[in-house]
């Protein structure tokens, strides 16, 4: 593997689904501070200090191509220009920019696959039309259009919100063919998995054993989507290079969550398990910057670190509201001795129930807030989380060590009722969102 930037293998989401994760991204804050502990559509985004607003107020032209998941869907939160992709029909008349563009290019004959299938379906439906019309291809095309029409007297900030590889599984047919005969490793199933059966795979299964043929095809389609995404990102980077802009452009690559894709008979996301919670994090400084290349760093990082990283690189003040930390000292080769020891993650509900978790990328502790059950994994020896050590006497000291770390992390939210007398207190579930989200203006 060749890395031209800096890679953090221990990169995690703070909350397990797209809306709370994206709120952490744009504010540099934690789920408890942004008021979101789970996925819930239709809640306003009343955040004053966002990454985009800070950059815009500092003279940057701010642009987005792709998905935001803001509400209302046209909210900008500091973007000067939006080329919007949205899988949802918020009102009968609502169409995102991609929907309108696709209808125009196809004389109204084509519709986004996400309008025809459930957005978490495991059904595979390859895109057999012109690859240039695919949602991921459009996202880069729209981004290039924004860059070509920008004010070249101002620095720019461009956010690309790719929807795929998130289901629906509709890779361009050519990419699907590339994975038809590839040998795939089996999906891992832990010794702690105790459920059977499945919900209807035609809609959106959460857990259970899918028929092997269906799961195999879904996994191949997902990898094909990743390959297509990789090509589209390369297309944009090539465009920047040919126009001499790569030398002065900071690039950050990450994601709002993963996909279980049959691991442990789970689908969808929203858990603290590796398939859902561990996400990529790559930072590439401009070519003109003097910094080490090809680093692989071990510090545990998260999405809320992106905002202070970008603001510091742009020379913008970082608001006091930001809880993340800039990655730039690490990118420049700093020791990381004073970096955080771990990442705290949480979600109000999933296929495994409501949970709180802590990890440093080498060990992970997960606690179910409703029934008090625990999972503990040695990720170094067991990266696919197949062996639960929570009941292993040999791991009891490490289990207690991580349990105390979690208690310390949630102690500042004592009113949530998750701890009592310094101990974890099962039986409570956090709300999906805080009521104050509906009481503020955007």
Q: What is the fold's blueprint, element by element?
A:
Blueprint: E1 6-7, E2 11-12, H1 18-27, H2 31-34, H3 51-57, E3 61-66, E4 81-84, H4 97-105, H5 135-148, E5 156-161, H6 173-178, H7 212-242, E6 251-254, H8 274-277, E7 281-284, E8 295-296, E9 301-302, H9 306-313, H10 328-331, E10 343-347, E11 355-359, E12 363-368, E13 374-378, H11 396-410, E14 419-420, E15 423-424
| DSSP strand count | 15
Pick out the low-confidence regions.
none
Shape by Cα distribution: globular
Broad structural category? alpha/beta
Strand content: 5-15%
End-to-end Cα distance, whole Å, is: 43 Å
The count of helical stretches stands at 11
The major pleated sheet works out as: 4 strands, mixed
> SSE string, helix = H, strand = E?
EEHHHEEHHEHHEHEEEHHEEEEHEE
Helix content: 25-40%
Q: What value does the average pLDDT take?
A: 93
Rg over CA atoms: 22 Å
Question: What is the strand arrangement across the widest sheet?
Answer: 6-7-1-8
Question: What does this entry look like structurally?
Answer:
The protein is an alpha/beta fold and 442 residues long. The chain has helices spanning 18-27, 31-34, 51-57, 97-105, 135-148, 173-178, 212-242, 274-277, 306-313, 328-331, 396-410; strands at residues 6-7, 11-12, 61-66, 81-84, 156-161, 251-254, 281-284, 295-296, 301-302, 343-347, 355-359, 363-368, 374-378, 419-420, 423-424. The strands form five sheets. It has a four-stranded mixed beta sheet, with no helix packed on it. A four-stranded antiparallel beta sheet has the order 10-11-12-13, with helices on one face. Helix 5 (135-148) runs parallel beside helix 7. The protein starts with 5 loop residues before the first strand and ends in an 18-residue tail after the last strand. 43% of the residues are buried.
């Amino acid at each position: 593997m060749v890395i031209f930037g800096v890679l953090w293998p221990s990169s995690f989401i703070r909350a397990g689904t797209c809306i709370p994760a994206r709120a952490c991204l744009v504010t540099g804050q934690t789920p408890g501070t942004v008021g979101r502990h789970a996925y819930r559509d239709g809640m306003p985004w009343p955040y004053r200090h966002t990454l985009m607003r800070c950059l815009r107020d500092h003279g940057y032209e701010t642009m987005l191509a792709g998905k935001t998941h803001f509400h209302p869907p046209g909210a900008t939160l500091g973007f000067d220009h939006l080329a919007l992709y949205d899988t949802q029909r918020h009102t009968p008349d609502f169409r995102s920019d991609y929907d309108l563009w696709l209808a125009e290019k196809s004389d109204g004959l084509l519709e986004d696959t996400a309008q025809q299938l459930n957005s978490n379906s495991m059904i595979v439906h390859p895109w057999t039309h012109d690859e240039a019309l695919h949602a991921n291809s459009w996202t880069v095309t729209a981004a290039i259009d924004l860059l070509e029409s920008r004010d070249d007297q101002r620095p720019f900030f461009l956010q690309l919100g790719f929807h795929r590889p998130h289901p629906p599984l509709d890779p361009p047919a050519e990419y699907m063919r590339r994975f038809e005969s590839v040998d795939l490793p089996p999906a891992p199933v832990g010794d702690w998995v105790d459920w059977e059966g499945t919900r209807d795979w035609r809609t959106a299964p959460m857990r259970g054993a899918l028929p092997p043929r269906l799961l195999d095809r879904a996994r191949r389609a997902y990898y094909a989507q990743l390959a297509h995404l990789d090509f589209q990102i390369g297309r944009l980077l090539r465009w920047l290079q040919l126009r001499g802009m790569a030398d002065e452009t900071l690039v950050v690559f990450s994601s709002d969550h993963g996909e279980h894709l049959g691991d442990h008979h789970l689908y969808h996301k929203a858990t603290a398990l590796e398939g859902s919670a561990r996400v990529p994090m790559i930072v590439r400084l401009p070519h003109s910057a003097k910094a080490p290349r090809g680093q692989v760093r071990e510090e545990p990082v998260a999405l809320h670190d992106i905002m202070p990283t970008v603001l510091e690189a742009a020379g913008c003040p970082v608001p006091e509201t930001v809880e993340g930390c800039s990655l730039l000292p690490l990118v420049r080769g700093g020791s990381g001795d004073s970096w955080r020891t771990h990442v705290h993650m949480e979600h109000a509900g999933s296929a495994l129930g409501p949970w709180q978790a802590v990890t440093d990328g080498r060990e992970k502790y997960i606690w179910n807030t409703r029934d008090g059950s625990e999972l503990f994994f040695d990720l170094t020896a067991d990266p696919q989380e197949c062996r639960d050590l929570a009941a292993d006497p040999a791991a009891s000291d490490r289990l207690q060590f991580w349990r105390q770390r979690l208690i310390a992390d949630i102690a500042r939210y004592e009113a949530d009722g998750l701890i009592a007398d310094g101990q974890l207190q099962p039986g409570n579930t956090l709300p999906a969102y805080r009521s104050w989200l509906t009481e503020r203006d955007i």
